[in-house]
Specification:
Strand order of the largest sheet: 2-1-3-10-4
Order of helices and strands: EHHEHEHEEEHEHEHEHEHHHHHH
Strand content: 15-25%
Oligomer: single chain
Shape: globular
CATH architecture of the largest domain: 3-Layer(aba) Sandwich
């Protein structure tokens, strides 16, 4: 039995779109690969190379983590190819727009002149949304930073103090399930397919434990296929124990929204075209230095892709 230590970050990092490894555990897919995956956490989260679970991987306290390839890209520009993405997880932007009332015919143009409350205040998500607005010529939108109190911000949208809430469906689904808000648009389609999140490890650890990482990726690929072939209700039944405090109705709604938006990666491969599109987007929003190329071959290892 091989073993990998998986640091998931702090509690805020355990989001419902990060469920493929939980499903692998629930279905016994890791065990079938003769692999034991030990889930650990960090005391604090973060959205930069210095924050959250990344130091645990860099310090070799953990073998792998899950997060945005944008972190590995920025680390590459600062320190070289020490981190690599080896298995896909989230293949599109998981952020959504929600409003007080349903808007079945909504398009981005409907945002013109409106107030959008950026509830999450997550750096790359905010910058990506600004990129979308610029691409569609929507400079007259008032993008309001969230207060830090999610319940208060959702109430502000429900009461008409703001027109839309911008957040991940993981956070929005409980408010949607009770009718406080209504989902009006996923940002996945308008951003295009990008490797928003992937499993990440040190390059040297990937080499040292190649067989274990290949087994991990095969299990995740199996889980991702299972997600594509089953309903959100069936998926929720399998992963609910890992989200014990998350309302069941919200879990089903949230997972269904992610399935419908094709947010879950179809397999463990991280396509080069999608990686390159993401680097261009991240350069355009200022997250990456566009003058310093981020090569796919330096940062992506398809462990277990065979």
């Amino acid at each position: 039995m091989q073993r990998l230590i998986f640091n998931q970050g702090d509690a805020s990092e355990s989001r419902i779109y990060y469920c493929a490894h939980y499903l692998s555990q629930s279905l016994g897919l890791f065990a079938a690969e003769q692999l034991e995956v030990i889930f650990t956490t960090s005391e604090s989260g973060g959205h930069t190379v210095q924050g959250g679970q990344v130091p645990a991987v860099l310090n070799r306290d953990a073998d792998l983590t899950l997060g945005g390839p944008m972190v590995a890209m920025k680390h590459f520009q600062q320190h070289g190819a020490e981190l690599q993405c080896f298995c896909a997880s989230v293949a599109a932007n998981p952020w959504f727009l929600a409003a007080a009332q349903a808007q079945p015919q909504f398009t981005l143009i409907d945002l013109r002149g409106k107030r959008v409350l950026d509830v999450g205040n997550v750096g790359t998500a905010t910058l990506t949304f600004r990129w979308l607005l610029a691409r569609h010529g929507l400079q007259d939108i008032e993008l309001i930073a969230g207060s830090g109190d999610q319940a208060r911000d959702f109430a502000a949208v429900a009461n008409g103090e703001a027109d839309y809430a911008l957040h991940a469906m993981h956070m929005l689904a409980p408010a949607i399930a009770v009718g406080q808000l209504h989902s009006v648009s996923s940002l996945a389609d308008v951003c295009g397919h990008v490797p928003w999140s992937a499993y990440i490890a040190r390059a040297d650890v990937l080499t040292e434990k190649a067989s274990a990482f290949a087994a991990f990726s095969r299990a995740i690929a199996h889980a991702l296929r299972w997600i594509a072939e089953h309903s959100a209700a069936e998926l929720a039944e399998q992963v609910q124990p890992f989200f014990a405090d998350y309302p069941h109705d919200a879990l089903v709604r949230g997972l269904d929204a992610y399935q419908q938006a094709h947010v879950f990666a179809p397999g463990c491969e991280i396509p080069r075209a999608e990686f390159d599109h993401f680097t261009q987007l991240l350069g355009a929003i200022g997250w990456l230095d566009p003058s310093q190329p981020v090569p796919y071959t330096a940062l992506v290892t398809q462990a277990g892709a065979e």
